[in-house]
Design brief:
Blueprint lengths: L1 E6 L5 H9 L3 E6 L2 E6 L3 E4 H4 L3 H5 L2 E5 L1 E6 L3 E6 L1
Antiparallel strand pairs: 1-3, 1-5, 2-3, 4-7, 6-7
Length: 81
Amino acid sequence: MTVLYVLDVPENTGVAEVAAAAKGVKVGKVGPYFEIASDGTIVIDRRATGCRHAVWYSSVAGLRNARITQHDKDALRVEPA
């Protein structure tokens, strides 16, 4: 399972909301983090999140069984490791 962790702060709420709307992606909580999980690839569109660039580039707190293959001004793509 591909897992992305994002700190649960108001600035990152849009990231979790957009991820939760994607097919096959589940969003839960682990401690102070959103746990965004999928059996496949996770793709989050930056513009849909409403995040400004500084927040966007600092949103990733950790990964499990995953690797980032895109993290630019357009999207965050996390794929199975």
